[in-house]
Amino acid sequence: MTKYFLAGLILMLGVGLGFWVGKYQGLPPNPDAAVTSERKALYYRHPMNPKVTSLTPAKDEMGMDFVAVYPGDDSTSTVSSQKSGKILYYRHPMGAADTSPLPKKDEMGMDYLPVYESELATSGQIQISPEKIQKLGVKTETVAKRSLMRSLRALGSIQVDERRVHAVTSKFEGWVQRLYVNATGQAIQRGQPLLEIYSPELVTAQQEYLIARQGQQVLQLSSAQARNTADRLAENALQRLHYWDIATAQLQRLQNLEKPLDTLPLLAPVSGVVLEKPALEGMRFMPGELLFRIADLSTVWLLAEVFEQDIGGVRQGQAVQVHINAYPERLFSGKVGFIYPTLATETRTIKVRIELANAEGLLKPGLYGSVTLAMQENKDVLAVPDSAVIDSGVRQIVLIQRGEGQFEPRTVKLGRQTDDFREVVEGLETGDKVVTRANFLIDAESNLKSALDSFDGHGAGASEPTSEATPQQHGGH
User: Would the pTM of this model clear 0.70, i.e. be above it?
Assistant: First the structure.
């Protein structure tokens, strides 16, 4: 009995298994699976942020695969609705900061991607109403090539022109009988008497000259040889007085009086001011001893200290503007007269000599001032106004006007900086319009918009990363 029962149970299991295999083996495959395997993905989207897409499979910052989007998906209709309206421009397919008004290909042969009016919200652009633009006071300027000039400022002090300093000395021994100029800093004129000198050597030389003149007169009727000898003696005696710097007027007086003068004046060789006055009334002096030091201040120097990294832009003969602290309302003009060949290792500066006219006598030795030199940096380089750059310290950004009320942030690479402009190495082209006023306000609004978008349907803390297929995202600066 048990034997027949087991056989019947096995037979029933076999029939049931055959019925199940026959029922499901002959059915066609799942149509949805077939369609999925045959369909081609339109693009791939970020698993946590559908606004970030890529044309090729990619991974997000956490290593999760981007989700494929196929025709007919709900997200496809969203993308299609975003890409509507007028094509504004074409952007680099790999997200580089490069755009074109016409279709073109990049360096790898890939087509530039069109950007539509409806894509402004997802492409990092921001749109502002004309009323708000007027209220903010937005101003733009066209990017163009220009010659950059930079102003170099250096500090210095007024010094005496070394070439216009004169020492007044005597070529004979004597005594100071009387001083006419008896104060340091006193202004004098050329030919003005400085002091009266008494010198036995000078008196003897005058006597020799007068004797030689008398000999000339006595020997007028003598032989030619005697007359020539008398003439040479008189000429030599007169020349000796000339060598001792006796003025011509004093020699004429000596000839008229026909007797030696007890004292003779020492005249000023140049006009200027007295820097030193070792001479004292009644003092004895020896040949070559300094009596006065006089400086002609009609032209003075300003010795400026220029740092070594700036000295390459300074050239001899270059025109400069000088501001003297004592005369804040005046501006003096001068030129670079000399660049000293040595560098001060303590301050890493090089002295530059500025020559200044001083007809009014305002520039006094020792006054402090500053020098402004116009230095040409580059010729015909792409540049933007300094006010157009938003510098975070990490990167530099400018705002480009795409259309009426449409602005786009653009990361740029900058070169040299001048007083009012910055050289643009990468990121802009000639003809682009950049915002030069109220750009910080527009940038702040763009940052707020990006922050709100990052929380749109993704929960707190969700960020909006940048993918290859999207233009450069504009985060906080």
Answer: no
